[in-house]
Design a protein that fits this description.
By secondary structure, the chain is mainly alpha-helical. Helices cover 62% and strands 6% of the residues. The protein has a domain of 77 residues. It has a three-stranded mixed sheet. A two-stranded antiparallel sheet has the order 4-5. A hairpin with a 6-residue loop joins strand 2 and strand 3. The longest helix is centred in the N-terminal third of the chain and has 36 residues. This is Reverse transcriptase domain-containing protein.
């Protein structure tokens, strides 16, 4: 970091020297034009910033601050002007709400297409197994019932919830504020009120005794299950029998497999693709951090990125990053139970650069691929209806294509 700051200081000193040279070369007339344009450019930038801030505040149903100040000081006395502004704000709000509803509809369609509904869950429970025990691990009745609840089950533990509530609320508050700042809007007091009310609501939900909830239900003498003890027992059993517990790919059931089977299939996959290797005791993270920061510094010195972008993309603390790792989800719906490889790299040193490139290229890609991209079943029906007017016949066949090892087949240099 010290070397980076030294190089930045050198770059800034060169810019300062260039400014001093310009002062000596420029004529008085040029300096007068410079001062006039400088004030106008600054005024335009301030107006643009205020306009963006007011627009975002209107989108979030917040009254812009300058209107509040004018009303408080009594400067807006023209009722017709206030009515006109209120009408325009209402139009903007309706447009933003309509856009929000459309985006929510797209999200719900994608979620509906990618997640099983109640009918599929009932069918799975009647016709399919709730647990796929390929490892033949012996389970008691209580352990089997716990695993039958599936990966989405969360048992009620007020003590654990109380320990997690503080940290998760702080994380949620930080994320909400970051989103407001990204839109150039100050979060102000509503965010604080929302976090406080959410904290009180969670406390009330966890403090409600189960007896008051079940008062209207028929009383059945059942022994309360100690899920914490069951989970500890399952962890010890899986460790002693070399068993791996995973959620199956494209379903909501658990799969129990042997460590040797996972290791064998993983070695075969890495040998076939030649894209991954086991690091062992080697830790390439420090060198990767150094090369990433050096690359960003070179871009900054070449003026390809701004100082703000450099500060956002560079790695300040090595504890905030970690190497990407490879893990697998079993495909229990296919013969032989192959493994689906997944690379987890949310804290990789280059993840911020990837997100920036995605923000820059995503609008262009979406625009170019809009006619050949289908995001939901509703859009598919619309395309089929359009194709049926000219190209769809009785002998037309619909087929799906599954590419094996797609990401490892794409060459890295050509792909970038």
């Amino acid at each position: 970091m010290t070397d980076n700051r030294i190089q930045l200081c050198k770059a800034q000193s060169e810019e300062f020297k260039a400014l001093e040279d310009f002062k000596q070369i420029a004529s008085p007339a040029q300096w007068n034009i410079h001062y006039v344009l400088k004030s106008k450019v600054k005024l335009c930038s301030i107006k643009k910033k205020n306009y963006c801030t007011a627009t975002k505040q209107v989108e979030y149903d917040l009254l812009p601050k300058f209107i509040e100040k004018l009303i408080q000081h009594g400067r807006l006395m023209n009722l017709s002007l206030i009515g006109k502004m209120h009408k325009e704000l209402t139009i903007i709000r309706k447009a933003s709400r309509g856009q929000l509803q459309r985006s929510k509809g797209k999200y719900n369609n994608r979620r509906r297409n990618n997640s099983p509904d109640s009918c599929s869950t009932i069918t799975r429970g009647l016709l399919g197994p709730a647990i796929i025990n390929d490892a033949q691990t012996p389970l008691t009745e209580e352990e089997h019932q716990l695993l039958n609840l599936g990966p989405r089950f969360i048992y009620n533990d007020p003590q654990t919830a109380a320990r997690r509530r503080t940290t998760e609320l702080a994380t949620l508050k930080r994320k909400i504020k970051n989103r407001f700042f990204d839109k150039k809007v100050s979060p102000c007091r509503p965010v604080e009120q929302f976090i406080v009310e959410l904290d009180e609501m969670l406390q009330n939900l966890h403090n409600i005794p189960t007896t008051t909830i079940n008062n209207n239900r028929p009383s059945i003498n059942k022994k309360k299950k100690n899920y914490g003890r069951l989970i500890k027992r399952l962890k010890f059993k899986f460790k002693s029998t070399n068993t791996i517990l995973r959620k199956t790919d494209k379903s909501t059931v658990f799969h129990l497999g042997k460590v040797d089977d996972y290791t064998k299939k993983s070695d075969e996959y890495m040998e076939k693709t030649k894209a991954y290797k086991c690091l062992g005791t080697i830790d390439p993270l420090p060198d990767l951090i150094r090369r990433t920061n050096k690359y960003l510094l070179d871009l900054r010195l070449a003026k390809w990125i701004s100082q703000k972008q450099y500060e956002q993309l560079c790695i300040q603390n090595s504890n905030d990053v970690e190497l990407a790792h490879l893990y697998y989800l079993p495909k229990a719906h296919k013969p032989g139970t192959p493994l689906r490889p997944i690379v987890a790299g949310l804290k990789h040193p280059t993840i911020k650069i990837s997100k920036l490139l995605d923000e820059l290229l995503r609008p262009l890609f979406d625009q170019m691929a809009s006619k050949t991209t289908i995001t939901s079943g509703f859009e598919l029906l619309k395309h089929v209806q359009e194709w049926s007017k000219s190209n769809l016949r009785q002998n037309t066949l619909f087929c799906t294509i599954d590419v094996t090892d797609l990401y490892t087949m794409v060459p890295q240099v050509e792909g970038v």
